[in-house]
Design brief:
heterotetramer; A: 7 strands; B: about 325 residues; alpha/beta; five-stranded mixed beta sheet; 12 strands; binds thiamine diphosphate; binds magnesium ion
């Protein structure tokens, strides 16, 4: 069941790339993006990095209890976001996807509020930082158990198919996630149903300290698509345009009724796994440095500069803007205040059962 | 309407709700052409087709998890786990995702779905076709848990479960699937409130509390007591989360003696909760310690399929102890 | 990591077969089996069928509570058994493998006793019929939850690798089993560790009523090996010699330290899923008849007859022998008697904790 | 030996047992070079190498299940689940395979293995890094369950667990991992019997029973009571399966008043069992109903990370109610 007029082959030996390290277009097809779109991509990558850095700073200041750095994943995440129809398609993201959610349009104040644990979080500060979601944007609230969002994503895609809604479900996860039974169960069900889902692995080569070699016997993630009868795309996830185009094609394929696919975006995580991690215990510094030299922002900036779409001045102005935006978001999120203690009893069910009412009274000392 | 068995009550209620509400879909292993291994979904495939009666892969995580993803997207899935013993591969989905979605999303997403599963022993199924895992669900915040024992309760509670805006684990006592027939209610909106017990018999000497499959043995024990001139008060809990504390506590407060009957393993079971609550709430009314008659803390055996279950003899012995206290 | 001197290629388009329907050798390599071995294969297939039929009869008589017919799986199962080193290699079988266990050498009386639920069962009649096991033969006791034996099988294989024992673990399952998360988790771990395991799918096209098309998006099972970086072999499981030779090679590969593989043996189940099933609800009779015409016993008998290793006389004598053997086994198993009620409290732990002692007394009315 | 924290006690005991018995292997996510996310396996990789300190794929079913397959083959695996909240993908392996193997094989196969997991709240981890799932294990026949609260108990019980011939679920209260330091025992065979409680304080006015993380708050409440001139008797259960009924029942029978403290959700929890057992066994000695101070039946929240836990204030209020009764 392969569509015609496709740009990319599944199961390539090498990751698909359309832009080389020098920022030159090597796509072999016509770039069909407007200048504003291209600069938008870059701005979103820059925004992801700024937010990442600033949240990290808040964590070190003790204001945010935890961060999961996204540095190195920006191109992949921005590529995914822009290939989607925001508010129409559904997204099942994972904790490292702050940059993706922002590029999709989720308000920064909600993301920041979620991490600060204030009432600016539409989820009422019920979860730890880096676990946002949005009913408004069809973004399923992140849950910590790795891969546990994959079967639900399959279900939403099957529901979209049954409804003939023309919507698509995108589900992201790391390389480690692919080892979980729930990952397999979910992807397999979507495959059996030919549901309009795109499963996207942001493969940074590590699950905390565990490298790919200990994670699985396969050399890459996209080959796992064979198990489900779907195409597997192997993509350079440090190339925002490759990420975008392959995702666009996989999404179109799903939307047109040709079923799900698995996309592997090869990236690297610059920081530790999280603020609780010390990655020097398991990653050679040389490896980190080598990947940093392949920075997705630098590469894409070269691309834009060649087209005179970007320069130092725009960079500085944008950074200023993004910094101010973040500062304002923190202020607004903090002003929202923390949810009252009693609110921990809400939303267990639509109504408050007698037992919980009693427990609330006891806990609040009203018993 | 003619009288039907409990498993027929399941099939009929599913049919009625699917006819009424196009959002209701049924899914699980063999629920399609096969009509379910117990025929709880018989004829639905012919009537509603593969889009609404979905044969799933053999993966309970996929069943429970995908049901959640469908519910989130607007459907009202009724998922079948072929035997309650096979819920464990889907346990993570149930406790980590389904139970908590409303809470952790601050109400942005909800999970209006039902997970049905035949449970309990007495069918010579050996360990992995006999378990009663309800305590795991009752202990999990965010799940409603229902465990009826009659065809009509099944109708009323399954309808309520399907229409509920929160996830409901719906346990069906498989050894009672074809044990008795009962007329169902003709009212297409007949539903029973989740959380309300049924008084099966009014009496003054001892309160018997049970639910699900063990109701059968409890009622047999109650009959024997009546013959002995003892007056049992019998409560069928029907729902375990929420459970009808009011019905139990008021009866125990009045009668002073109580025997709790459930085939689930003894330790940290649902009846532990009932026993503890009784002691904590109506201690002074107790004329004897609450007694539990339960399955022992062994895996469910094969050769002793019947002996494992708390049968009338064990119940009567417990009643005697409570009366003699 | 592919060994040299291998007879078979992984990932073939068509199932590997070495004997055609007419019973002619088409292997393309030299058959290296002694006549006694060949007739032994046939006898074991016949024995599997006889035991299957006789247990079915006991079930219809109400003496056995449940059967899971193995008719159609005999070639596959006998091929697997003879490729193994009994008592040395480990086997993690599933419920339909009675023929495999018998061919491996498990005493018939134990199998029959297990299904009758008597003390002839070394497992003390703790499980329902078709759930045997043997400490003596390194055969892990069958458990009902589908695929739940796969991670333990991976663990045993990893342990074998760590011990450098030269043993191999064979793990069998149906097509439906491959959808379970536990299946994936187990196979993947074995793959990551390069453990000496052979995962074997007896693919009969159905999981109870659910056909392959609803089970997974892939057209076959062996391709799932791609996901784990291991070879996947596609084999005609109605051909006992193909089953044997491919298994022999996969086992040798594992034993020699070249890691695990996935073998798909394409078979058909002639009977219902179990005695509780009515397969006419979901399988067209014509399909069943068509597969029965490809009967593995008939095909292999033709092969033997061409070599004058079998004839009507031997067939009749063997059937008589096998029937008598079964009758004697039933007698012996019944005479062993059923385990006492009190024995249900044994073997929860090595010792009997106070709580269980009390519960035993209460249950036995000694309280 | 110098005093060490609880998490150091884990690492040291693992080291000692690995040195003693070549069958002992450690496995789990990030237990290798990383030394575990809490450093409970620190330095073991350098000392014993990748064959005995095995970094697993991210799959708890693989961890628990493969540990079983290793145990069956003669090893003594100690598997780590990174957080107790992540045991659910491995729950089927634990309850369907590990817990029942000895039973269902009639003793032909056994599962001498330990599954360690940091549990409990109070570390701002949000729902999925804070749960206390012990009731699920205590309810599962065939599992031993241990939940220590001090470094030395951790040493003695982890050693006992590793040497036990049956599977042990070993829960570690993560918020106490670095809370206190204590000298360990130098005896290389020092072990504490699984199933034996510890008396933390002898007293006459009220019995406080707790275990794991909640011991900290319980002891703080006990200190406050002493200051008020009230004499609490404090029991640390340490093991939940089997649990020390004798220690609890004799204390309650003597004192007549009891408060049970655990942060696990209230309904059908382990403390339900303790409360029910007390009522059933020593009813007449009770001067007041048993009281439970537990986590509420909500998912574990983030913003109210501290308030969810039964803190000293809630415990003291419960003691007051019990004393005033
Ligand atoms: C079921 C489960 N097990 C373990 C964890 C602990 N954990 C959190 S993130 C992580 C690694 C995830 O790695 P990967 O999927 O590659 O994503 P990455 O962090 O590299 O982006 C682990 C083991 C978890 N959250 N859930
Ligand atoms: C976890 C689990 N879910 C469901 C079942 C019920 N069940 C028993 S056998 C079976 C089908 C298995 O099919 P397959 O793996 O193809 O093996 P086959 O019976 O065809 O040989 C099902 C669904 C089970 N035993 N375990
Ligand atoms: Mg990763
Ligand atoms: Mg099959």
């Amino acid at each position: 069941m392969i569509r015609e007029s496709q740009l990319f082959e599944p199961f390539t030996e090498e990751p698909i790339s359309v832009m080389n390290e020098a920022g030159e277009w090597v796509g072999g097809f016509d770039l069909d993006l407007e200048p504003e779109t291209l600069t938008r991509f870059y701005r979103d990558m820059l925004r992801a990095r700024v937010v990442d850095e600033r949240l990290g700073r808040l964590q070190r200041q003790g204001k945010v209890s935890f961060v999961a750095p996204g540095g190195g994943h920006e191109a992949a995440q921005v590529g995914i976001a822009h290939a989607m129809r925001a508010r129409e398609d559904w997204l099942y993201p994972y904790y490292r996807d702050i940059g993706l959610l922002l590029a999709l349009g989720l308000p920064l104040v909600e993301i920041v509020g979620q991490s600060l644990g204030t009432s600016a979080d539409p989820a009422k500060a019920r979860q730890m930082p880096y676990h946002p979601g949005s009913g408004e944007f069809n973004v399923f609230t992140v849950a910590s158990p790795i891969a546990s969002h994959v079967p639900p994503a399959a279900g939403t895609a099957i529901s979209q198919k049954l409804a003939g809604s023309g919507e698509v479900t995108v589900c992201t996860f790391g390389d480690g996630a692919t080892s979980e039974g729930d990952w397999h169960a979910g992807v397999n069900f979507a495959g059996a149903q030919g549901a309009p889902a795109v499963f996207v692995c942001e493969n940074n080569g590590y699950a905390i300290s565990v490298g790919m070699r200990h994670q699985t016997g396969s050399d890459s993630i996209h080959v796992k698509a064979h198990a489900y009868g779907m195409p597997g795309y192997f993509v350079d996830g440090m190339d925002v345009l490759a990420s975008y185009y392959v995702m666009r094609e996989a999404i179109a394929r799903a939307r047109d009724g040709f079923g799900p696919s698995l996309v592997e975006l090869v990236v690297y995580r610059y920081g530790g796994h999280s603020s609780a991690d010390d990655d020097s215990r398991y990653r050679p510094r040389a490896e980190v440095e080598q990947w940093k030299r392949r920075d997705p922002l630098t590469r894409f900036r070269r691309f834009l500069e060649k087209r005179e779409l970007w320069d130092d001045e725009r960079e500085a102005a944008t950074l200023q803007e993004l910094g101010d935006e973040f500062t304002a978001a923190v202020k607004q999120a903090e002003e929202a205040g923390v949810p009252p203690v009693a609110s921990m009893f809400d939303d267990v069910f639509a109504d408050l059962p007698a037992r919980l009412r009693k427990q609330r009274a006891e806990l609040l000392g009203e018993g | 309407m003619s009288a039907v068995t409990m498993v027929q009550a399941v099939a009929r209620t599913l049919d009625e709700e699917m006819a009424r509400d196009p959002r209701v879909v049924v899914m699980g292993e063999d629920v399609g052409k096969r009509g379910g291994v117990f025929l709880a979904t018989e004829k639905l495939f012919d009537k509603y087709g593969p889009d609404r009666v979905i044969d799933t892969p053999l993966a309970e995580a996929a069943i429970v998890g995908a049901a959640l993803g469908m519910a989130v997207h607007g459907l009202r899935p009724v998922a079948e786990i072929q035997f309650a013993d096979y819920v464990y591969p889907g346990f993570d989905q149930l406790v980590s995702q389904v139970a908590k979605l409303r809470y952790r999303s601050g109400g942005q997403f909800t999970a209006p779905m039902v997970v049905r599963m035949p449970a309990g022993g007495g069918v010579k199924g050996g360990h992995h076709h006999s378990q009663s895992p309800e305590a795991h669900f009752a202990h999990t915040a965010g799940l409603k848990v229902v465990f009826p024992s009659t065809p009509k309760d099944t109708q009323g509670l399954l309808r309520a479960a399907i229409r509920d805006d929160d996830p409901v684990v719906f346990l069906e006592p498989k050894r009672l699937y074809r044990a008795v027939k009962e007329e169902l209610d003709d009212d297409p909106d007949f539903a029973l409130p989740i959380g309300k017990a049924a008084e099966r018999r009014r009496g003054d000497d001892v309160v018997l509390v049970s639910y699900g499959g063990s109701m059968a043995e409890t009622l047999r024990a109650a009959d024997a007591l009546v013959e002995q001139g003892i007056s049992p008060h019998v409560i069928d809990l029907r729902s375990l989360a929420p459970w009808d504390e009011e019905a139990v506590l008021s009866a125990v407060a009045r009668v002073g003696r109580v025997v709790l009957v459930s085939e689930a393993p003894h330790t940290a079971s649902f009846m532990s909760e009932v026993s503890a609550t009784i002691a904590e709430e109506v201690l002074d009314a107790l004329l004897a310690p609450p007694a539990r008659v339960t399955g022992p803390d062994t895996p469910y055996p094969y050769a002793q399929d019947r002996e494992y279950l708390p049968g009338p003899n064990r119940i009567l012995r417990a009643v005697q102890r409570v009366l003699d206290y």
